[in-house]
Fold these 3 entries.
Entry 1:
Amino acid sequence: MSLILYERSDCPFCWKVRLAMRFAGVAPQRIPVASGEKHPDVLRLNPAGSVPVMIDGGLVLAESAIIAEYINEAYASSALLPGDAAVHARIRQLAAYSDTQVGKALRGLVFERRSKPEAEQDEQLIQASETAWRQRLDWLEERLQGDVFVERFSLAECALLPRFALAERYGAGVDARHPKLQSWWQAHKAQTLEAV
């Protein structure tokens, strides 16, 4: 296998792809790209210049959702997208919500705490980000059925779990206000952190 993944260890989009690959039992050659780096290979392979970028033989893919779905079909026998068309749509909706809404909510918090000394952090931005994170958790808590979003691990978890890990890393994890999500996160936390 000639699977290559250009990625950043702290990027939730890359983390999503690594979770899908881990589930599928594939171990790519990982090429780290530093935050803010304009890696020449990435610029050549992806017009946006962003990671993740995956090469599988002659196939080059960018965009985490596309890569994760490819890994699911090519290596996981579609196990990350179980069920019928309605379940597939639900999984994709949760993954898109993670990428567009949850990620956006956490952005201020993560960027402030990750890249600035504490004395220079914008506390108002952090507080606004934490509030937005809690609102996204409210929406997700309503959609969690028992302790699962779907009957088994799926592309939705691949997208959501890295966001929960980053939130926890930067001081805004999930707590007793969202008991179903807290239980779900605890059930998946170890495998999420192993995919770093």
Note: DSSP finds seven helices and four strands in the chain.
Entry 2:
Amino acid sequence: MTLHLVLQALQSNPVAAAIRGELPPLGVTYWFFPVIEICHVLSIAVVFGSILMVDVRLLGLADRNSTVTQVSGEILPYTWTAFGCAVLTGSLLFMSKAEQYVHNLQFQLKFLFMFVAGVNMLVFHRGVYRRVLDWDRALPPPAGARIAGALSIILWVAVIFMGRWIGFTIQ
């Protein structure tokens, strides 16, 4: 099955049609896309806000009385829950116009930046974070932690920027 056929199948199902507002008997379907988009934006806001809280602690700029493990332990469950909601709502939005999204440069860049943010997190956790107990209270944290935190902020801002730009390029 080619990518084109998969994308057509995704966007031709009744859920995608409802999200696009193409089910005439259900006048409420005109609200599906904006409601899903609002949920997506709120989910991304929680993802970014919670990641930002951990990142500013990694930079040594905030919550200096809490350890890195405390901050991340308290915050990251919210991050992952919101990320799951963002994936669900983003998938629904994607299926409504799959062929347009997959060929959209801003959409592609958003996913590239998310991928790099994931790699940054993986490198951080496989690297400097393995010795977190040695530097958990240290101010400033080690250079590797500060670099990971700064890069994370930059990448997530880029994800948000590209995500917002998509709305101006997909009709």
Note: The mean pLDDT is 93.
Entry 3:
Amino acid sequence: MDFNKARTFVEVADCGNITQAANRLSRTQQAISLQLQQLEDELELALFDRHGPKITLTQDGKHLYTIFKPRLLEIDNAVIVLKSNKQQAAGVIRVGAWMEQAVSYLPEMMRIFKQDHPLAVFELIIGNDKQIEQGLKDNQLDFGIQVFCQDKKMFKCECIYRQPLIPVVSRSFLKTQKLPKNILATLDMPILDYRDEYSAFNPWIKKNARQLLPLAQKKVRTITTSNNVVLKQLVLQGLGMGLLHLEAIQGELDMGELVPILPRSGVKNIFVELDVVYKRKQTLPYVHQAFLSFLKEHKGGWME
């Protein structure tokens, strides 16, 4: 088997597009297409279904991919280890993340990581948990940064971030309304919350006053959003109470722009956790292994 044809096959399968694969391999589209055709002719198998510029693997193609991919990565990793120089570690790291992680977390992580691995290239794809998980299944992503991973048999999940969610209102909100005196009084406040199963208000009520949970579940939220950055701005505008990551609002708390709810009443915090998610049964390239280790080393904070 021609090593270059095997590498071309894997690259096209990862990209799902000949143009992108050609750019990564620094070759022409015609050369890539010719190699794929020769490979299919030699094996007498149809490896790809072609739909215009997008191509997907057939069942035979998927089987061959599971054979080729780990062996090529083992070769690449062995070469890098022999060089013993992480400055030479190169590769494309495809990461799926929510908008708030893409704005506040990953840019700093990428910047620090690239100081030691300058040849690493990132592709950052924005989506929710469901979209990220599908991207991992379709081999369009290498890692996902998720709140909830559904398929834990297929994917390994490792916590890389944990922060308390603090119930707060803005200073402008207090110009027209008073702080609640107890947890029950929060049910009379306008609540700004995360959407659907990501609600923070319900778990906060459940942890601190479980008997109030049925009322909290019926409570109509003033505004819901799936984005922590947006929720923070809504709270700052004085629209109501929201639960926000401590690290993301520490500056506003220090300046008095945001005010904690019931800070000295023994109320217990709930926590948000983010996992780095990736396929269990796969061999990671050296630079991917390095990035995974890096994320786990920095799990103590969001913007270290």
Note: The domain at 161-272 is CATH 3.40.190.290 (D-Maltodextrin-Binding Protein; domain 2).
